[in-house]
Amino acid sequence: MTETKFTCRWALLGLSNIAKTFLDDLTIPQDGTIQHIVSCVSTTSSKEKAQQWLAERSNLNPGGVKIYTTFEEMLQGGGFDVVYISTPHPLHYAHAKAAIKHRRHVLVEKPATMNKAQFETLSELAKSAGVVLMEAMWTRYLPVVQYLQEILPQIGKVKRVFSDLSVPIADEDMPRSSRLLDKQAGAGAMLDMGVYALTWVDLAFNGSPSTKVAFAQTIPYDSGKDLIDDINTVVLNSGEDGGQVAIVTTSMTLPGSTKHSDKLAVDKVAPSVRIEAENAQVSIPFPLIRPQELHIEWYNKDRLNGDGSEVRETVSKPVERGWGLWYQADVIAGEVQKRGASRGQGTGLVIGGDETVRVLGWMDTARILSGIVYDDALEAA
Ligand SMILES: NC(=O)C1=CN([C@@H]2O[C@H](COP(=O)(O)OP(=O)(O)OC[C@H]3O[C@@H](n4cnc5c(N)ncnc54)[C@H](OP(=O)(O)O)[C@@H]3O)[C@@H](O)[C@H]2O)C=CC1
Ligand SMILES: O=C1OC[C@@H](O)[C@H](O)[C@H]1O
């Protein structure tokens, strides 16, 4: 019996850097039951620039991609299934809200919103509009992370987690208007990178609702325009008795010697994540945003080597194609497929909503404790 392929049609808001990788990933030909095409894009820049941007991409929808210069027109125009929002973070809330109002399914880049309250509002709106909403926390859907979730019961109670995302993405050679240096565009390592490092805590503690931020500190970076949070340290406690701890660090300037373009290809000796549990320790190499293997040292008594030494295991689960942003796209497309042609008539759904709310809530608290403040207008829910 031949399986019917579902074609998920995408609308892109923002011809951003990450949209290039996303689009390239989506359109790699594949054998699965879901295929993706890009139907339209909306940009604040000119149609000519958008045409050029699209011309640099391969495997695009042969029927052509419609270009809009206002988001509203694209939302009204339709002809797509999901809108992918990759504008700077302070705009996510308003953009996702507008899309939901038009009863469109939404995949919104990380961090989904500036704070927990904004995401809770979006979740309520998505549920009542009968659409699917998802934060593009793509790391969660990678094969190695799925594997970690499977072996969590075997490694036993997690006692301590170290999680670090430090990538030198900010430097003085960048244009001052870059979203990485401009606080009005949401600049800061907590929102940009902490969201990933904290997601690993949530994974390691298996979504425990008892996890709370106990301490947070920031050493800011002077971008020449703004003081932005950079070297952040967040300590979290978890468990009914508080017997589990996580130490989370970020930086957008350390280590200073690595060039931005090579930032994610560095072979670092220190692991990015270390999960110490009753029966084993699991280490995840850099970069924690795109893990492809994990190292396990089993030290529970009934699993030791004959000479009493720890059993070491390396589990390799490479990303199967491209950069790996397509895994999350398949997840939301699968939900859209289940809903069939009815748009906004089914039950609304927030994929990974509890996870997003927990991590945003921790960032809210960590920001209060370490004095990371944005204009009220960016935070309004
Ligand atoms: N998942 C991942 O691995 C990554 C995720 N991200 C996330 O994606 C988002 C974008 O990051 P990045 O790609 O670096 O961003 P860029 O700065 O490259 O692009 C942002 C785009 O947003 C659009 N935009 C800017 N201002 C407005 C506005 N006022 N109204 C409408 N559109 C606007 C512009 O697109 P146009 O010119 O077409 O209008 C701009 O190019 C961030 O939230 C970031 O956290 C970023 C990197 C990696
Ligand atoms: O999502 C991201 O992943 C990689 C980082 O370099 C980038 O700043 C961030 O937005």
SSE blueprint and pairings:
Blueprint: E1 6-13, H1 17-26, E2 34-42, H2 47-55, E3 66-68, H3 71-77, E4 82-85, H4 89-101, E5 105-108, H5 116-129, E6 132-135, H6 143-155, E7 158-166, H7 189-204, E8 212-222, E9 227-238, E10 244-251, E11 273-277, E12 280-284, E13 293-298, E14 311-316, H8 326-339, E15 349-351, H9 353-370, H10 376-379
Parallel strand pairs: 1-2, 1-4, 2-3, 4-5, 5-6, 6-15, 7-10
Antiparallel strand pairs: 7-11, 8-9, 9-10, 11-12, 12-13, 13-14
Helix pairs in contact: 4-5, 5-9, 7-9
The structure holds NADPH dihydro-nicotinamide-adenine-dinucleotide phosphate and ligand LJPVP2WV.
In this structure, how is the largest beta sheet organized? 8 strands, mixed
Question: Which class best fits the helix and strand makeup?
Answer: alpha/beta
Order of helices and strands: EHEHEHEHEHEHEHEEEEEEEHEHH
Q: Which CATH architecture of the largest domain?
A: 2-Layer Sandwich
| Unique ligands | NADPH dihydro-nicotinamide-adenine-dinucleotide phosphate, ligand LJPVP2WV
Helix content: 25-40%
Question: Gyration radius, to the nearest Å?
Answer: 21 Å
Number of domains: 2
- What is the end-to-end distance? 49 Å
Q: Give start-end ranges of low-pLDDT stretches.
A: none
CATH superfamily descriptor of the largest domain: Dihydrodipicolinate Reductase, domain 2
The CATH topology of the largest domain comes to Dihydrodipicolinate Reductase, domain 2
Number of helices: 10
